[in-house]
Amino acid sequence: MSKSRVHKDILHLWLKKLHLRIIDWYIIRKFIGTFIYSILLIIAIAVVLDVAEKIDDFVESQAPLRAIIFDYYLNFIPYFAILYSNLFTFIAVVFFTSKLAYRTEIIAILSSGISYRRMLWPYIIGATLIALFSYAFLNYVVPNANKVRLDFEEHYVHNKPVSYNYRNIHKQVYPGVVIYMETYSNLSNTGYKFSIEKFVDNKLVSKLMADYMMWDSVKNKWTAYNYYIRNIDGLKETIIKGTSIDTNLNITPADFRRRVNVVESMNKRELDEFIHEQELQGGENLEAYLIEKYKRVAQPFSTYILTIIGVCVSSRKSRGGTGLHIGIGMAFCFSYIVFMQFSSQFAISGSLNPLIAVWIPNILYAGIAYYLYRLAPK
């Protein structure tokens, strides 16, 4: 027996244990079908708008048509689909549930003896499938797609060199080893007023100071110029001077010009390792990286919350019909997205813990979902 047949049998037994009825299958099928349809529709619009925005960059940089289609847009689609998957879920729920309410099918379901709570069961199953899909894509599929997409953008969209001068850089490159640069230029890959300090048991044992250091692309090392080294051993101190010396630092020029969204191209393991490295070095954008990590769990979880809100908002028949339900639902959904952005900005500015910032919208809207559930017609 093949593995695929075994997996199908296991899935069939699992679904059988859920005691699903015909109406459950009907709702799940409508839920997932409308979700896929809404994703395809929005993606088509997003691709057209993105082409209109970037067509000048493609022409100016002479990007090959094959690279535009297969390297950029083929990897742009999964990125965009997952970025707003909770929004698509909400739209799907509101759209087809309001249709059920308009055709009085909700009333028929509740009149048949099925409780409102039981009616939510197929919605929860559909939300679970979408949440698992989102989690797997966010952590393992989309990062690989983003590697190709971001590489394309570096070559054909953001390919113009821009001068940046970073000031007062402090980084811990190894445990107990700290570097400092007064200024750093990304065009010349040169850091000025450079120093390396080595500590043992919180005591300074060695310090190298140089006028400047420059990246040697042949040796793949940093070279410090006009340097002197102080070696401290208790009360004894020795000084070594020289014109140039190579250093073995675990940083490269790429670390200085790295964009914040580079974490979008890292899977779960790579992101955890990268954050640990940035914590060691005292990275400046650590809050933004932590937000990306926590969002990969919080976003799939929000699928449940927005699904329940969507059902509760659209399950009541109203004179405004489907349009009114969609309008109310979209207001809830966009307010959720705006609230998420606000809380993330507070975390980036250091005013709020990143974990709390990411989960505050879910906690708040979970309360709203419970309140709407209590008000929903039973």
Structure overview:
The protein has helices at residues 3-17, 22-60, 65-83, 85-102, 105-111, 116-156, 253-256, 268-281, 286-314, 321-348, 354-375, and strands at residues 165-174, 177-185, 190-200, 203-216, 221-233, 236-247. With 378 residues, the protein is α+β, with helices and mostly antiparallel strands. It has 2 domains: 3-157 and 287-375, no CATH class; 165-256, no CATH class. A 6-stranded antiparallel beta sheet has the order 1-2-3-4-5-6, with no helix packed on it. Helix 4 runs antiparallel to helix 10 and helix 9 runs antiparallel to helix 10 (321-348).
Structure summarized in a few sentences:
The protein is of the alpha+beta class.
Strand order of the largest sheet: 1-2-3-4-5-6
Mean pLDDT: 82
**Cα-atom Rg, whole angstroms?**
27 Å
Note the total helix count: 11
- Structural class designation: alpha+beta
Low-confidence stretches: none
Helix-strand sequence: HHHHHHEEEEEEHHHHH
> Which range does the strand content fall in?
15-25%
Helix content: 55-70%
Q: What is the CA-CA span between the terminal residues? A: 47 Å
| Quaternary | single chain
What overall form do the CA principal axes indicate?
A: elongated
Q: How many individual β-strands? A: 6
Q: How many discrete structural domains?
A: 2
Biggest sheet, open or closed, and with what strands and sense?
Answer: 6 strands, antiparallel
